[in-house]
């Protein structure tokens, strides 16, 4: 799940928002999104006989249906589940409210009918790290936090002196990496001369690497991987 501006939303294992289509029948469940529709709204699929592991939801709400093309699609609360091709980074809600028929799932399996424009965007809580580790991930060298999540730099930030320019919707999706204990973090495989910090308005100290403030994507649940579409949004994996 992800705590978004519209409330808690359901995500897949990679942190991408999962949607429901209000035109789908629920008794019995079936998908009306086929053919060209699936280019924009790919169904959430599993292998035949596969299991779905849930976190923060009732396992009884999760089931699956057989699609017309033979695929096995996950259902939540009896509603088929989809991704949106226009979401480029974990936590995006670009498909929410589309055509008045596509809405993000809430953890109880219902559609969230509140629109983003009516909700107040709140800054994501800081990623409080005690150790930063340099390692070789699945996509090359990366820096990770205590959870093994990849850390990023924002191309629009200032480095001399360091300053964060991630505000508004950006700040709702990207957590500043702050030192759990004062201004210090333990380093593994990283030259100490490259790491410092900047003071934020809330009193926390955001860790910097070569002058660039560090962040974690709020919905990224993966480890040792780089969000493939992050670069197009101005985010570079810290190395």
Outline of the structure:
The protein has helices spanning 37-40, 169-173, and strands at residues 2-4, 7-9, 19-21, 45-46, 62-66, 72-76, 79-80, 102-104, 127-129, 131-137, 140-144, 152-154, 158-159, 162-163, 174-179, 186-188, 195-199, 205-209, 212-213, 215-217, 235-237. The chain has 239 residues and is mainly beta.
Secondary-structure blueprint of this entry?
Elements: E1 2-4, E2 7-9, E3 19-21, H1 37-40, E4 45-46, E5 62-66, E6 72-76, E7 79-80, E8 102-104, E9 127-129, E10 131-137, E11 140-144, E12 152-154, E13 158-159, E14 162-163, H2 169-173, E15 174-179, E16 186-188, E17 195-199, E18 205-209, E19 212-213, E20 215-217, E21 235-237
Parallel strand pairs: 9-15, 10-16
Antiparallel strand pairs: 1-2, 3-8, 4-6, 5-6, 6-7, 10-11, 12-21, 13-14, 15-20, 17-18, 18-19
Structural class: mainly beta
Give the C-alpha Rg: 19 Å
Number of helices: 2
Q: How do the helices and strands follow one another from N- to C-terminus?
A: EEEHEEEEEEEEEEEHEEEEEEE
Strand segment count: 21
Shape by Cα distribution:
elongated
Strand content: 25-35%
Mean pLDDT over the residues: 88
Distance between the termini: 28 Å
The major pleated sheet works out as: 4 strands, antiparallel
Percent range for helical residues? Answer: under 10%
Low-pLDDT runs: none
